[in-house]
Amino acid sequence: MQKETAKDGGARTPVLSVKDVSYWYGAKQALDDVSFDVYSGKVTALLGPNGAGKTTLFSLITRLFDAPTGRIEIDGRSAADWGFKALGPLGVVFQQPTLDLDLTVKQNLRYFASLRGLKRKEADERMDRALTALDMKERIGERVRSLNGGHRRRVEIARALLHSPKLLLLDEPTIGLDDPTRAAIVRHIHELARTDNIGVLWATHLFDEIEADDDLVVLSKGRIVARGEAKAVVADTGAKDLGEAFRRLIGGDAEEDVAI
Ligand SMILES: Nc1ncnc2c1ncn2[C@@H]1O[C@H](COP(=O)(O)OP(=O)(O)OP(=O)(O)O)[C@@H](O)[C@H]1O
């Protein structure tokens, strides 16, 4: 597994390591030799326009598909060697919501906790903690149907945190939300990464969701075109901000829906 030297001189081990991964849908290549790492306590933003390959990458990490080439390790374990056990340290929020609208927040979370094998007392404690971190504790008894989009998203994130994952995958979790709600979720996730030492991989096409200290992976047409701390990527391109850096990096692949 690749290691990286931290600023204090110590080696840090990635909680997610993606190495030389390629993927084809028939003759169409969606990912081309993709390699990067995600570290504990940090948000890694996966930035790319529509069609760059972000969802395909998430499908490979979560084992919805098998990677025909390369290796993916979560907390040092590859699913190729460990099967679905390798996914234990993983929490996921997919693009499409998957809550049961007719159940309350509590019922949804309890159901998920039981699938994860958590005992009732432990599940309730963790539920409490995750909902508090996301400012949703007061809504625990409400039916999900009565919540707005932003609050439903927070419940999904709380659910993904119940089993104390070391790695959290978020596939464009703020899609369809208004700006203040987006900003609140971005802030919560960055705080969670720091306080709970979780490695976060955040797929997005919105520059304002990325902080200067975040790690950044820029994906274009299935290939990584830049990788490093966001501020270093901006400095390396000589751009004035991330938006300009991104346009320079992806050139003709820039699309209008990639927003500053
Ligand atoms: N089931 C499929 N069959 C064929 N091609 C596909 C399939 N799914 C995705 N692709 C293609 O693979 C490439 C990567 O798609 P992917 O959905 O991973 O990108 P993305 O960055 O997640 O985009 P979006 O933000 O729109 O979800 C695109 O060119 C897409 O058209």
TrEMBL record:
Residues 16-246 form the ABC transporter domain. One of its GO terms (molecular function) is ATP binding. Keywords: ATP-binding, Nucleotide-binding. It holds the Pfam family ABC_tran. InterPro entries: AAA+_ATPase, ABC_transporter-like_ATP-bd, ABC_transprt_ATP-bd_su_PQQ, P-loop_NTPase. Signal peptide: none annotated. The keyword Nucleotide-binding applies. This is ABC transporter ATP-binding protein. It comes from Methyloceanibacter marginalis.
